[in-house]
Design brief:
Length: 277
């Protein structure tokens, strides 16, 4: 299908592919396209594609680094119907962040009995993982800068500043001494180590950002392993119903894609930054 893109989220992984940080895993030859998240309107449907017609509003992804564009070709299994009440920026930004949060919560097997620690709790993935764990009934502590603490409290999340000494002790104090039972890491190795230091069983530590965490017995999560129409639909419906909220930190026209990445690369985005072609 050919989709006219209305909104496309940007992700730190794309910056890392560009700088070569992920070249072992995701080599790149430039110039090349960028972007996997997308939402838009079906422009044309190839022969034998069931279930979609020109004019349908859809959301999903492409695996071809190609969604930061006015038009993108997608396979049928890569898109689902966009709920009418979901905004274009949210629909266009939900794939990577949403599937990452989904995979973290399911990999760590979070339940209502858990006390969960989420790192980068207000970021693109962290903001959704935090709410997801809380929606399951878990008690959630979120590591974030002070500017995000009131926002996290609004979701019933216990905020803890990641900067400064004695982070483990401050987490324990913030949770009134209750034992953390699961960690969802969306930032990096120091938080896998923090989970281990807090006495969390390694199998209950899931990370999207520390690919070496397996050496400690923790679980490394890749968002694309859970990508399916069923999961995309579940995330889209949770956002459309308000069960999950995805803050949109900023939108940029496609012509200012550089500005969008400059903001993302500062590393303090609350929620998502989205391109609007
Ligand atoms: N493996 C996968 O499948 C997969 C999928 C998606 C993403 N990722 C990776 O996961 C990471 C997060 O992605 P994202 O889209 O959520 O990124 P993001 O939205 O750019 O994350 C921004 C957040 O990081 C927080 N932060 C900055 N410095 C921090 C620190 N020293 N300690 C704790 N938090 C800090 C910020 O918190 P404050 O603003 O509160 O300071 C901000 O909320 C990236 O490394 C990305 O490449 C991996």
């Amino acid at each position: 299908m050919l989709v006219a893109v209305r909104a496309a989220g940007i992700n730190p992984g794309e910056s890392k592919i560009r700088t070569g940080e992920l070249r072992e895993r995701w080599p790149a030859t430039f110039p090349e396209g960028e972007g996997s998240d997308l939402a838009g309107v079906v422009d044309a449907v190839g022969p034998g594609v069931p279930g979609f017609a020109a004019g349908d509003e859809v959301l999903g992804y492409t695996n071809n680094r190609a969604s930061h564009a006015e038009f993108v070709l997608v396979e049928a299994g890569e898109i689902v119907a966009k709920p009418p009440s979901l905004s274009w920026p949210q629909a266009g930004a939900l794939f990577v962040a949403g599937t990452s949060a989904y995979a973290l919560v399911h990999t760590a097997e979070v339940s209502g009995q858990d006390i969960v620690l989420v790192s980068a709790a207000a970021g693109g993935v962290g903001s959704l993982a935090t709410q997801w764990a809380r929606n399951l009934g878990a008690t959630v502590a979120g590591l974030a800068g002070p500017a995000n603490h009131a926002w996290l409290r609004g979701f019933g999340v216990v905020p803890v500043d990641y900067a400064g000494p004695d982070l483990g002790q401050r987490v324990r104090r913030a949770l009134d001494g209750r034992q953390v039972t699961a960690v969802l890491d969306t930032h990096g190795p120091q938080y896998v180590q923090l989970g281990l230091d807090l006495g969390v069983h390694p199998q209950r530590i899931a990370t999207i950002a520390d690919f070496t965490a397996g050496q400690h017995g923790a679980k490394v999560v890749q968002h694309y392993t859970v990508a399916s129409p069923r999961v995309l639909t579940e995330i889209a419906e949770a956002l459309a119903s308000g069960d999950l909220q995805m803050p949109i930190a900023a939108t940029y026209p496609l012509s200012d894609v550089r500005g969008a990445y400059r903001q993302l690369e500062q590393g303090h985005t609350r929620g998502k930054i989205v391109l609007l072609p």
